[in-house]
Write a structure and sequence with these properties.
Length: about 525
């Protein structure tokens, strides 16, 4: 493919060249079925996707599909990259059929499809020989799995995935971790040390010079190097790690300036965009090690207990977490699971003698209110305050103006911090069979605490799931809020009947926000 690209591609009127981009040559020549590239910005990989599609159509009559995060990105890419590539090459232009269809280009007997990942039906509509994924971390959830199915009848079955990474274990980084993890090695001609070219080892910040990590003498960063795999065992994915030091156009002084910025947002941007590495502040995400440390091998769930609290997240299914407070500050998960119908919650409330249940008010508000009517004084409808709300309170309990039902407003970030701290400090106890409960670990680990800038330019913390299901994380939040309510209010619970829960004594001097900063 490299020879074809050199022969027929032009960039801004000039013949395509690997000069100053020698690290790309081997990637162009690589015929491995599945290649992923964890990359910095402005390193030439998006151009590789275009050239792969053109080459396979022109020389092999293979169909390709290039997938982008959204249609808007797709249209910009075609106007800014694909159309100029066609117009600047007489050979490619002569082979492209005359068509105005933005989503399809015909070249000889083959087709190149351009699709946004947000519309699943468009991805299912055609089959391909090669799937090309641009900016994997921004694609809709399940895109790669869906794309792989489009290769079912192909003899080629190529996949190429590229992206600037975001967070560890997510998107392109998760894919790269399953690969052979190739790094670009160059040689020092002074001491003969072979070394991977990295910012922290090779860039002398005082002189803005790339040096050998061993002898600290200047080294040619643009020399012809070699890709060395970290994992030597056979893997299904071949992976390349690329940073901006590899590229001739990189401004080293600008790179140094970016490295010296201090806000979390700017540090993350430096790692992602300049170094091509994932970044997350310490403790910003739960992991399996933390969760496994909370397992109590002495019991399994469900475990029959009375006087419990319940948290329910509402989606296509109802994700339920029921906890029982033990002596001290420990909280034991006695039930974790999914159910289909709201009526099944009635049975769980009775079975575990639930004192307080906090349930997501959306999207099934009517069903949630009906549940509340059946269990007055026990069930609270939960709403998150908007992320840009400036208030510092953890929760606020109020009456719904229209229906007069109990509503609890929740500071999502602060509540998420409490839940994360509960796992980190091992006060949230999990049953011995927790890893056999489908999706629990994955959904609790999905949210990442990120620092972003609001409209005023201030840094604010939020939890984001980046398209991954996080229902159990919210169920744990609601269970935590239920416990806060049960501890801070004197709730009188009746056995049932038409007067159930009609007397609920709320001390006038007690403030629901008084212990907002306590852990579980």
């Amino acid at each position: 493919m490299a020879i074809w690209t050199l022969a027929y591609r032009k960039i801004k009127g000039k013949p395509f060249s690997f000069y100053g981009h020698s690290y790309l040559l081997d990637i162009y020549q690589d015929k491995h079925p599945f290649i992923c590239s964890q990359k910095s910005t402005q390193c030439g990989l998006s151009e590789l996707l275009i050239n792969t599609a053109f080459y396979l159509a022109d020389k092999k009559s293979f169909n390709s599909m290039i997938i982008f995060p959204a249609d808007a990105v797709l249209y910009d890419f075609i106007r800014g990259r694909v159309s100029p590539a066609i117009n600047e090459s007489p050979h490619i232009k002569s082979r492209i059929a005359d068509t105005d269809n933005v989503g399809i280009k015909s070249m000889g007997k083959a087709f190149m499809y351009f699709r946004g990942s947000q519309t699943e039906s468009k991805l299912k509509s055609v089959d391909a020989d090669c799937m090309l994924y641009d900016e994997v971390d921004e694609l809709a959830e399940g895109t790669l799995s869906l794309g792989e199915k489009r290769l079912g009848h192909s003899s080629l079955k190529w996949q190429r995935a590229i992206s600037t990474p975001t967070y560890p274990g997510d998107g392109i980084n998760a894919l790269f971790e399953t690969s052979d993890q190739r790094h670009w090695f160059i040689k020092c001609h002074h001491c003969n040390e072979r070394q991977p070219l990295t910012f922290h080892d090779n860039l002398d910040i005082k002189t803005a010079t790339v040096v050998c990590k061993k002898c600290r003498r200047p080294i040619d960063r643009l020399q012809r190097g070699e890709w060395v795999p970290k994992i030597t065992a056979n893997t299904n994915v071949r992976g390349y790690q690329i940073n901006r030091l590899f590229c001739e156009r990189t401004d080293l002084n600008g790179l140094i300036i970016n490295s010296q910025k201090t806000t979390e947002y700017e540090i993350k941007e430096f790692y992602n965009s300049d170094l091509g590495l994932p970044y997350a502040p310490k403790g910003s995400r739960l992991n399996k090690t933390i969760l496994r440390a909370c397992i109590d091998g002495g019991y399994e769930a469900p475990c029959e207990e009375a006087g419990c609290v319940m948290g329910v997240d509402v989606g296509s299914m109802l994700n339920v977490v029921i906890r029982k407070q033990q002596e001290g500050s420990y909280n034991k998960a006695v039930y974790i699971g999914t159910i289909k119908d709201f009526e099944e919650l009635d049975e769980l409330i009775k079975r575990f003698d639930v004192e307080v249940c906090v349930i997501d008010a959306n999207p099934e508000t009517r069903k949630a209110k009906e549940l509340q009517e059946r269990h007055m004084g026990i069930v609270y409808l939960a709403y998150y305050w908007p992320s840009d709300d400036k208030r510092q309170e953890l929760i606020e309990i109020q009456k719904d103006e229209d229906d007069g039902v109990d509503v609890v407003k929740v500071n999502r970030t602060q509540a998420g911090d409490h839940v994360s701290n509960g796992f980190t400090k091992k006060t949230l106890i999990l049953p011995s069979n927790i890893e056999s409960i489908p999706n629990y670990f994955a959904q609790v680990m999905a949210p990442i605490r990120v620092i972003e800038k609001d409209k005023s330019g201030n840094e604010v913390a939020t939890y984001q799931e980046f398209g991954k299901p996080d229902h159990y994380f919210h169920s744990e939040i609601y269970a935590f809020i239920a416990l806060k309510i049960s501890l801070e209010y004197n709730i009188i619970i009746y056995e049932g009947g038409e007067n159930a829960g009609e007397d609920r004594d709320i001390p006038e001097e007690e403030d629901t926000r008084s212990s907002a900063n306590k852990d579980w």
